[in-house]
Amino acid sequence: MNFRTWVGAALCAAGLAAGAGSATAQTAGGTLVYIVQPEPPSLASFLSTSGPIGLVAPKIYDGLFDYDNDLNIVPALAESYEVSDDGKTVTFKLREGVTWHDGAPFTSADVQFTVMEVLKKVHPRGPNSFREVMSIDTPDDYTAVFNLENPAPYMLRALSGYESPIVPKHLLEGQDPRNSDLATNPVGTGAYKFTEWRKGQYVRLDKNENYWKDGLPYLDRIVGRFIPDASTRTAAMENSEVMYGAYGAIPNIDAVRLRDMDGFSVTTDGYSMINPMALIEFNTKESPFDQAAIRQAVSLAIDREFLIENIWFGYGKPATSALSTNFSATGLYKAGLPNYPANADVDAAIKVLEDAGITADGDGVRARAVLDLIPYGEDWRRAGEYMKQALAPIGIELDLRYEDVPTWLKRVYADYDFQINVNYFYQLPDPVLGVHRHYGSDQIRQGTHFVNSSRYSNPELDALLAAGAQEADAAKRSEIYGQIQEILAEDMPVVNLFEMQFLTVYNDKLKDHATSALGAYGPFERVWIEE
């Protein structure tokens, strides 16, 4: 049979041998204190892709794979895989001798349960990642056979401990995973075991002495500190109270200053897997943003270059479509679409509004709305203040609202109690994984985070999304995604603002923290501290 295969066990052994050979310079032991900003709403990464959860949970949970900075597959709970000639069967050979943190053995039953009963049902992106998986066979404890209705090569890019954490069947079976104790007391197979969560202060993870990677992790403990105030976070970094801050934990205004100081460095490594996009979500079911014209006008009135240069200090690239330009490499990005200026076009915005009959009252106001800001730091507050100013000239009057993470998530994704929302999404390595969830009618999943909160529904687009997910021919797939982007540039249920470039600020004594494409969302098993 002609099939594609990858023998991960040999690669893993080679990688560990290389690591052992260079370990003379590495120091085992010690505690890493890093910033988790803001405090996570839970540690249930199988329920929510909220950024703060990603800073903690992948140290506890493994996936079938990890990925290096070139996006190559690195073996984890799966030692190898085979894809059948027709692409409809994927067989994973699982690692033997792995135990859960409570001592129970890890088996193929955990993989089957995780995918079929958890990720496909309650995870924000799982229904798309595993949409083609109809069943999973477990002929023995260390073999999992995924049976697909159609080929789904994108699935192989969605198997990290961050994206698709494998969870313990013996602790979840027979209960609603949304109400599980694992949200506050997680049990995984990863490099670190959950020890303590002191609300408002820190979460502590200790070394898993029975970790399946011999000799790892190097650290004895990692502690994620919650520091709400931005200036205090920066001071903690400068004073070496913390050694690592990612995803805007240190505001860019301070990061560029620390970059030039002795003892600190700044990197954009560790984000290649996520493809982050800053954006605006609209509630398309309620006034005033139930009309495409007003959504287009918002996009036209926003100066993307200003946001990048003055708030994110040059780290970013203006959005020009519903898809990131990074998808150019696979032929899926379409250039030259309307309503995506790099600089504000106020006259064009006003014309769109006037043509749609959205006129101003005696005070020059066409619409009033509350702008909800993602509660992830001061940069987002400043972005909201800018947007309030930027939309005033076209007659849109905004009030700003900034709440804690659980309240914000509930308001936007559970209650739909919002009008306009500033946020960011990960588009990930393939649109099926990161983009479809914004727009598909089947992604209106009340209570699920980071899906179609706009409640936008378009049968023509739904058909194109389904076709794009299944099309194997590159040219045909490119044509389909071109049509998708054309529709979304007109309907604008979501306005992309800019392609983000996150900064990680770290103490130079901290080593090997960016060996995974997931960066801060990686397992941290190879991180060590230089004496």
CATH homologous superfamily heading of the largest domain: Dipeptide-binding Protein, Domain 3
Largest sheet: 6 strands, mixed
Number of strands: 22
Under CATH, the topology of the largest domain can be stated as: Dipeptide-binding Protein, domain 3
Helix content: 25-40%
Report how far the terminal alpha carbons are from each other: 53 Å
Provide a count of the helices. Answer: 16
Strand order of the largest sheet: 15-19-14-18-16-17
Q: Calculate the mean pLDDT score and round it.
A: 94
Strand content: 15-25%
Organism: Sedimentitalea arenosa
GO biological process, one term: peptide transport
Main location: periplasm
Protein name: ABC transporter substrate-binding protein
Describe the structure.
α8 (292-301) runs antiparallel to α10 and α15 packs antiparallel against α16 (474-491). The chain is 27% helix and 21% strand. 52% of the residues are buried. By secondary structure, it is of the alpha+beta class. The protein has helices at 8-21, 51-54, 108-122, 126-129, 169-172, 230-238, 252-258, 292-301, 304-310, 346-355, 378-391, 405-414, 431-434, 436-439, 459-470, 474-491; strands at residues 4-7, 31-35, 65-67, 73-75, 78-83, 89-94, 133-140, 143-148, 192-198, 202-207, 221-225, 244-245, 264-267, 276-282, 316-318, 367-373, 396-402, 420-426, 494-500, 504-507, 510-511, 528-529. The strands form 6 sheets. Strands 15-19-14-18-16-17 form a 6-stranded mixed sheet. It has a 5-stranded antiparallel sheet with strand order 1-5-6-8-7. Strands 2-11-10-9 form a 4-stranded mixed sheet, with no helix packed on it. Residues 72-440 form the Solute-binding protein family domain. Residues 1-25 form the signal peptide.
